[in-house]
Amino acid sequence: MREEDSNWFSSWEEELPSPEELMPLSQTLISPHLAIAFDITNPSHHQQYSSQQVQEQQFSHQPPSGTEEEPARTQKRPRLVWTPQLHKRFVDAVAHLGIKNAVPKTIMQLMSVDGLTRENVASHLQKYRLYLKRMQGLAGGAAADSATDHIFASSPVPPHFLHPAGRPTSDHYLPFVPALQQHRHPHQHMAVAGGHRHFGSPRNAHFELPILSRMGAPVTGYAEDVESGGRKVLTLFPAGDD
DNA sequence: TTGATAATAT
DNA sequence: AATATTATCA
């Protein structure tokens, strides 16, 4: 742990974005009417995800190209930030499926994260596999820490992941059974949300984010602004119990 | 850096 | 044709 990890927790509540700042990706990326079906117009019932702990993923990188009311589908998807919680779900899904069936599409479906695409998972899976390979080499005690693998290290790697692969699928590993979202059923356990901050104008820093999909209430999270070159990244994740 | 995208393979 | 894996980009 570093200082930053302690610092952000300090300014955690201060920088805490309000639920209104969270834009439901399900509304922008999916069909408008479908988004409405997913959307909660009246935040009355909220605390039904206590065990799951609503996870908010903040995206960044919003193209400065004028129009802000671009068609949802033509919208360029912001960078996804893989938080430990999201990663944990990823690992759980992979563990549940077994290395064999752990392919991007299936993983994505099992994760049941709204807004998460197959590409997101594929990209991450690629990195994760590399991480696993790296760990096999250093098997024994020491773990590789490249600041890159921090996210991977946050979640324990199931034994069979490092296995030479000979077993078909002996997974009595049932972390959870998310129940694939087959039809339009607004029952995601998690969701990815995005929003755009206007750093240049700290005064009118109000966003016209519509409404939360259906889990904006207990949005506990911390927001950190990271500036890399000219790229502003705002990451937000819940203070989960993980 | 980390995640997206392109290229390629199955 | 669709999805998976690898490589490269930003």
Automatic annotation (TrEMBL):
Task: Tell me which PROSITE patterns the record gives.
Answer: HTH_MYB
Q: Which InterPro entries match?
A: Homeodomain-like_sf, LUX/BOA-like, Myb_dom, Myb_dom_plants, SANT/Myb
Q: Where is this region: Disordered?
A: 1-24, 45-79
Sorted alphabetically, the Gene Ontology cellular component annotations on this record are: nucleus
- Offer one Pfam family short name for this entry: Myb_DNA-binding
Biased-composition ranges, Low complexity, are 45-62
Keywords on record: Nucleus, Transcription, Transcription regulation
Q: What NCBIfam families does the database record attribute to this sequence?
A: myb_SHAQKYF (TIGR01557)
Q: What is this protein called?
A: HTH myb-type domain-containing protein
User: What is the species of this protein?
Assistant: Sphenostylis stenocarpa
